[in-house]
């Protein structure tokens, strides 16, 4: 063999060996990582927690990341339960990433802890405007509640030309208090005066006193700012008191508990602001998710599960693409993500809040919510 041929063969051999080494390194399984999921599995918001848990489990199965370990903890739908769950996950389970809670008010108590411990905290459904204030380890996948409230005020004052509106809201939840304050400000901007503002606490069951005041105020519409259980009871008692006015609420009322507790007769005609989420077309990402969800869980999916699916799926996709479980790398990639998911396009502003979501109006008819404009 000629010297030149030997040299060429040697170079080729070196290139092949190098390629094999690089490939073996890139295909080497990444380190193990624990991901904690904090959702309400008991309490008044347990149905939201179940939907979120289902979405997260689907994302996990679809991604097939065997080095990622999910650990679920019950927040019980309270601040105290959320804090206790996070402390257990961070100390006993040594998590690097936390997903939760579904309520912004419940998420806030753990944001500083996540930041100080450099645990990546992903809030899939929080609408509280202060969720990410703790620092760059906190991301919010849902828009501020103010966006929904502005949609409501515009619909009432501009589209329907209603001028006499009453408000009933929960004082227990900080996000709902912000929603009430926002509606007051919007009403002032529209030069409208609210006929009466009534309040209640989560867990209350008798709303007749507040509803009678609303009836005597002469309101033509009611803005209902509450969770499904209390919201359903308010609607039921309003029907019993013959308070027949236009009622509109936030997307949080998009829940089977509203119909289960309120009944079709009392809930028919309820309007809600809904995040755009449609299962109608199986050829879309959302439609495919809905088909898979129904097949596995034998129940209709809701947007909450879709948001939770996206929250985990994005992170798992980053792990796969970057071949890493390093939280710093994941965090930095997440900041600049532009992702088309089940819940629509996902991208974050400079403060790590998602933006650009679209909203539609839905109406309750015969035990389910349908598009109001169809």
Number of helices: 13
The fraction of residues assigned to DSSP E strands is 15-25%
Distance between the termini: 81 Å
CA-atom Rg in angstroms: 24 Å
What does this structure look like?
With 374 residues, this protein is of the alpha/beta class. It folds into 2 domains: 33-143 and 283-357, 3-Layer(aba) Sandwich (Rossmann fold), CATH 3.40.50; 146-277 and 360-371, Response regulator (Rossmann fold, 3-Layer(aba) Sandwich), CATH 3.40.50. It has 13 helices and 14 strands. It has helices at residues 3-26, 46-63, 79-91, 104-116, 145-159, 174-189, 208-216, 228-240, 256-262, 264-267, 285-297, 303-322, 327-335, and strands spanning 33-39, 68-74, 97-100, 120-123, 138-140, 165-170, 194-200, 221-225, 246-249, 271-275, 339-341, 344-346, 359-365, 368-371. It has a 7-stranded mixed beta sheet with strand order 7-6-8-9-10-13-14, sandwiched between helices. Helix 2 links the parallel strand 1 and strand 2. The chain is globular. It starts with a helix and ends with a strand. The relative contact order is 0.12. Residues 19-29 have low confidence and may be disordered.
What's a quick, concise take on this entry?
The chain is of the alpha/beta class and about 375 residues long.
Key terms for this structure?
374 residues; five-stranded parallel β-sheet; Rossmann fold; single chain; alpha/beta; 2 domains; seven-stranded mixed β-sheet; 13 helices; globular; 14 strands
Question: Can you lay out the helices and strands and say which pair or pack?
Answer:
Elements: H1 3-26, E1 33-39, H2 46-63, E2 68-74, H3 79-91, E3 97-100, H4 104-116, E4 120-123, E5 138-140, H5 145-159, E6 165-170, H6 174-189, E7 194-200, H7 208-216, E8 221-225, H8 228-240, E9 246-249, H9 256-262, H10 264-267, E10 271-275, H11 285-297, H12 303-322, H13 327-335, E11 339-341, E12 344-346, E13 359-365, E14 368-371
Parallel strand pairs: 1-2, 1-3, 3-4, 4-5, 6-7, 6-8, 8-9, 9-10
Antiparallel strand pairs: 10-13, 11-12, 13-14
Helix pairs in contact: 2-12, 3-4, 5-6, 8-9, 12-13
């Amino acid at each position: 063999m000629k010297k030149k041929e030997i040299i060429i063969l040697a170079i080729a051999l070196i290139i092949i060996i190098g390629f094999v080494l690089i490939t073996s390194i890139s295909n080497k399984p990444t380190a193990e990582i624990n991901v904690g999921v904090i959702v309400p599995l008991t309490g008044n918001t347990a149905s939201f927690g179940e939907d979120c848990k289902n979405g997260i489990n689907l994302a996990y199965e679809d991604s097939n990341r065997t080095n990622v370990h999910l650990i679920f903890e019950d927040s019980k739908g309270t601040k105290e339960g959320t804090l206790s769950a996070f402390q257990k996950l961070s100390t006993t389970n040594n998590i690097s990433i936390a997903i939760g809670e579904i309520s912004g008010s419940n998420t806030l108590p753990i944001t500083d802890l996540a930041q100080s411990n450099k645990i990546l905290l992903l809030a899939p459904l929080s609408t509280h405007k202060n969720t990410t204030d703790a620092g760059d380890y906190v991301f919010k996948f849902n828009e501020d509640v103010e966006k929904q409230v502005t949609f409501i005020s515009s619909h009432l004052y501009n589209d329907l030309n209603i001028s006499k509106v009453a408000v009933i809201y929960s004082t227990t939840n900080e996000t709902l208090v912000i929603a009430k304050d926002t509606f007051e400000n919007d009403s002032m901007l529209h030069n409208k005066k609210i006929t009466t503002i009534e309040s209640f606490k989560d867990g209350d069951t008798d709303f007749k006193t507040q509803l009678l005041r609303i009836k005597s105020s002469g309101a033509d519409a009611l803005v209902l700012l509450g969770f499904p259980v209390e919201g359903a009871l308010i609607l039921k008692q309003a029907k019993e008191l013959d308070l027949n006015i236009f009622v509109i609420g936030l997307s949080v009322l998009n829940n089977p508990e509203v119909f289960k507790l309120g009944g079709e007769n009392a809930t028919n005609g309820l309007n809600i602001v809904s995040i755009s989420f449609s299962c109608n077309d199986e050829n879309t990402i959302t439609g495919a998710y809905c088909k898979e969800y129904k097949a596995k869980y034998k129940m209709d999916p809701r947007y909450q599960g879709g948001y939770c699916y996206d929250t985990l799926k994005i992170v798992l996709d980053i792990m796969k693409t970057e071949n890493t479980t390093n939280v710093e790398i994941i965090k930095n990639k997440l900041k600049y993500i532009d992702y088309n998911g089940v819940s629509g396009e996902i991208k974050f502003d400079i403060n790590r809040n998602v933006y650009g979501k679209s909203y539609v109006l839905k109406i309750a008819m015969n035990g389910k919510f349908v598009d109001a404009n169809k």
